[in-house]
């Protein structure tokens, strides 16, 4: 696995608490959860060339489909 880039990240303490609880709910570290959230956002925004964003439900089902 390629080494990861380290950099300092300053967060509002209340936001960090939210991320900390969220990470615990998902059984991840805070750093791992932040990386997960950023990766998912980049994929949805079409910024990751090898991944395509998941189509929204209304785009997958034609009109009148159950």
Secondary-structure map:
Layout: H1 13-25, H2 30-44, H3 57-60
Helix pairs in contact: 1-2
Describe what is shown at a glance:
This protein is mainly alpha-helical and 66 residues long. The protein is 48% helix and 0% strand.
Describe the structure.
The protein has a domain at 13-48. It is built from 3 helices and no strands. The model has no long low-confidence stretch (mean pLDDT 87). The protein has helices at residues 13-25, 30-44, 57-60. The chain has 66 residues and is mainly alpha-helical.
Strand content: under 5%
Shape, per Cα inertia axes:
globular
End-to-end separation: 43 Å
Provide the residue-averaged pLDDT. 87
Which stretches of 5+ consecutive residues score pLDDT under 50? Answer: none
The portion of residues assigned to helices is 40-55%
Q: Let me know the largest β-sheet.
A: none
Number of strands: 0
Q: Which H/E pattern describes the elements?
A: HHH
Radius of gyration: 16 Å
How would you classify the helix and strand content by structural class? Answer: mainly alpha
Secondary structure tally, helices: 3
InterPro entries: Arc_rbn_hlx_hlx, Ribbon_hlx_hlx
GO biological process, one term: regulation of DNA-templated transcription
Protein name: Arc-like DNA binding domain-containing protein
Jot down its keywords.
3 helices, single chain, 66 residues, mainly alpha
């Amino acid at each position: 696995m390629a080494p990861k880039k380290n950099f300092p990240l300053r967060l509002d303490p209340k936001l960090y608490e939210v991320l900390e609880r969220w990470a615990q709910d998902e059984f991840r570290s805070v750093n791992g959860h932040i990386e997960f959230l950023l990766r998912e956002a980049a994929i949805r925004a079409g910024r990751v060339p090898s991944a395509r964003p998941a189509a929204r439900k209304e785009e997958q089902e034609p009109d009148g489909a159950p």
